Each structure stands twice: as structure tokens, then as C-alpha cells.
């Protein structure tokens, strides 16, 4: 028969697992985005995200929230951060999922990693916001992609790339047919085969670095943000396709800019005349 001590240990272990899974769940972006909106006049709009669930309270009370304006006067130009180290895999299968307000490209089992300050963060997914969530000197661009990475101990690092209307983006051209296929479905996760994340071009060694949060609930903080300085181009047709594939009846899916609250914002610029 099971002893009282063994039963107690089992209960404690199960409680630990439940608490751990609950903690991890509140650290990640929600996969079902139907409970909140981007409508500034709505009761579930950005100003009220923190009131919808207790575990979303950071959206309203956090002092390290994202996105922010990357204002020149706040930025410290440095060369010691080093070039962004990307070691992405080309063999990872991917799926596309309509989460409610955005299209998420998810790599099964991860797609390699980036390294920041000696810590490896595995690339798990990418998604798009239109218009851009971050701004540079108050200017908002047409599109922003977020590459979401996670370390073994559950910390998050996001690489953001902004786009303006112009020449078509080569990576989006690769998945255009899959986006079109999802435009007439809802709640479907579509397998799209091997997608090489290295095809998502940065175009510059320069990047901004600051500590912020997830830009969707639960708005978890202490996220390491890397925003590529170069603004790339995307065609107007590609931008419209990304929004039309999402059935949320909204023209945008961008959180308003949050207070910087005297945070350190660095711009990495290599000590290289060619740069």
C-alpha cells in the first residue's frame, strides 16, 4: 500500500508540475487571440488587456512594456554588443496558423538559434504586425515581423524587422500561396514543409537592443529585443495578403507605443568604415 509520505510527495510533485506549466503558459504569447482586440474604443482593446485575466495584469502595470519609440536622443551608439549570431537550421518543417489577429509561422522542434551574451535562444516562430509596432523617431512603418526565440530556461528574445512599401520581400514570396490557401479558412494549422529561416533577410549588421515585453497578452517582461536598423521593403499586395488571411475584421494588429520609462536603448554599430 502507498504510504502517507509517498502520497504526500506525489501530491507535492503534481502541484509543482501544475505550477510550472501554469508559469510557462503565462510566459508565452497566447495562441488563441480571440479574447482581446486592437480596437482602441473596445472594452477588450489595448488599454484594457490587463483587466481581461489576472495573469495578463502586466499589460497595464508593467514598466518594461513593448513596443517603444526608438528615438535618436534616447539611443546610445555602441560597438561592443557584437554582430548578431544566427545559427538557423534549413531542415525544420513549418506550419502556418491563424491565431485570430495574426498569421504565425511555427517551426516544429525549433529552427536553430541565435546567441546573445553567451545564451542560446531557439527560434520557434515568426508572425507579422501591420503597421509596425516599433517606431523610429516617431515614424511607424508598414509592416514588422517578429522572430520569437526561447532559451532552455524559458527566457524570450525577439528579433524585429520593419518594412516599408516597395519591392516584394523574397521570403514572403516563398509562402504567398500558403497564405492565400488560408485566406478562406479559419482555425486551421497548415503544414507548409521545409522553410529556411535564413531566407528572412536582415540586410544590416546594425541593430537596436533593449529590454521589453511581449507585445500581446500576457505581456511578459524581461524580453530581449533586437530591432534591425535597416528598414526593408514589402509589396503592398504582400502586406494586404497577410492581413486578409486573418479573419478579425480589423485593419491593423499593432499595439500602441508604450512608455520608455528611462530604459537603456543601444544601437550597435560595428567599428568598420565599410559599415
Describe this structure in words.
This protein has 275 residues and is α+β, with helices and mostly antiparallel strands. It has helices at residues 4-27, 49-52, 58-61, 170-182, 236-244; strands at residues 69-70, 75-78, 85-88, 93-98, 103-107, 112-116, 119-129, 135-136, 139-140, 143-150, 156-165, 189-194, 207-213, 221-228, 232-234, 265-268. β4 (93-98) and β5 form a beta hairpin. It is globular, with a radius of gyration of 20 Å. It comes from Anisodus tanguticus. Reversible hydration of carbon dioxide. One of its GO terms (biological process) is one-carbon metabolic process.
- Extended strand count: 16
Summed up, the helix count is 5
Assembly type of the chains comes to single chain
Mean residue pLDDT = 88
The largest sheet, given as strand count, sense and whether it forms a barrel, is:
13 strands, mixed
Choose one word for the global shape.
Answer: globular
Distance between the termini: 72 Å
Structural class based on helices, strands and sheet pairing: alpha+beta
Alpha carbon gyration radius? 20 Å
One letter per element, helices H and strands E, the order comes to HHHEEEEEEEEEEEHEEEEHE
Helix content: 10-25%
Low-confidence stretches: 8-25
* Percent of sequence in beta strands: 25-35%
Signal peptide: 1-27
Function: Reversible hydration of carbon dioxide.
Catalytic activity: hydrogencarbonate + H(+) = CO2 + H2O
Keywords: Glycoprotein, Lyase, Metal-binding, Signal, Zinc
Keywords summarizing the entry:
single chain, 275 residues, alpha+beta, 13-stranded mixed sheet, three-stranded mixed sheet, 5 helices, 20% helix, metal-binding, EC 4.2.1.1, signal
